[in-house]
Fold this sequence. Notes:
By secondary structure, this protein is mainly alpha-helical. It is built from seven helices and no strands. α2 crosses α4. The relative contact order is 0.18.
Amino acid sequence: MYLLKKENWWIWLLLLFFSGGSSSIVLGALLNVYNKNAWYTKWYIWVIGLILIIPFSIMVMVFNIDITTKTACKLGVKGSEAYLSPYIWIILLIIPVLGWICFVGLLIYLNIAILVKLYNGNGEKYID
């Protein structure tokens, strides 16, 4: 739990680069953002997704976006209430080029804002 201390923000920066953005899954576990009744805890959803030929990578990407937005909300990133709405992410994916650019920009913003909040010490209140 000492990874949430203010002086350890650079560890999360390295994890962000070396994990390709999936370090928010571990950070989400440390901040206790997982819900035991959410869609990602049900095994049959993953099986149905694989049977219906939904690529596993898309399901993992949606899971990563979900946890990243919940982590940002828990750390107090500005505008995080809007990012928790699935409609914004769906609209950005439907609009061809500009929406996709904004989609990637929002993900980059969320990851950088999470690092800034950790640097400011917002994660220290979740240390046991």
